[in-house]
Amino acid sequence: MIDPNVDLYDLAANGQLATYSGSGAGSADVLELDMVLLADLVANGWLAPARVEVPGLLLTAQEGEAGDRRACRRARGR
Fold first, then answer.
1. Where does 1-78 show beta strands of DSSP type E?
2. Which long-range contacts (CB under 8 A, 24 or more apart) does 36-39 make?
3. How far apart are CA 26 and CA 3, in angstroms?
4. Considering only CA atoms, which of 22, 75, 25, 70 is closest in space to residue 46?
5. DSSP state letter for 74
6. Spatial CA neighbour of 14 closest among 3, 4, 5, 26
7. Side-chain half-sphere of 3: how many Cα atoms within 13 Å?
8. Distance CA 2, CA 17 (A)
9. Burial 10-25, CB ≥16 within 10 A → b, else e
10. Which residues of the chain have pLDDT under 50?
11. Which of 2, 10, 16, 70 is most exposed, with the fewest beta carbons within 10 Å of its own?
12. Sequence-distant (≥ 6) Cβ neighbours of residue 31 within 8 angstroms
């Protein structure tokens, strides 16, 4: 739910965006933010890489992509 009273463009160290981006009470696991803020979020250290650790995920994605290429070639008669 979006709270219209929360200013997500407030980059203050004690602002709500800092709370959401932190690791304590009131923090969020995932935030959807305006890309306009990206450089500021990185500079403040409020972004971290997401790690997906699912065995075989990359291989499955590569296989799917290769299958798509084969399907496209078949559709074009190659």
1. none
2. 37/9, 37/11
3. 14
4. 22
5. H
6. 26
7. 7
8. 13
9. eeeeeeebbebbeeee
10. none
11. 2
12. 20, 21
Signed CA dihedral, 39, 46, 61, 72: sign only:
negative
CB 15 within 8 A of CB 7: yes
Backbone angles phi, psi at 63, to 5 degrees: -65, -40
Look up residue 8 and give its two tokens. 């997500």
Task: Report the C-alpha gap between 6 and 16 in whole angstroms.
Answer: 7
Give the per-residue pLDDT at 75.
Answer: 59
Residue that has been written with the tokens 């890309």 in this structure: 35
Task: State the pTM of this model.
Answer: 0.49
What residue has token string 């890489």?
Answer: 49
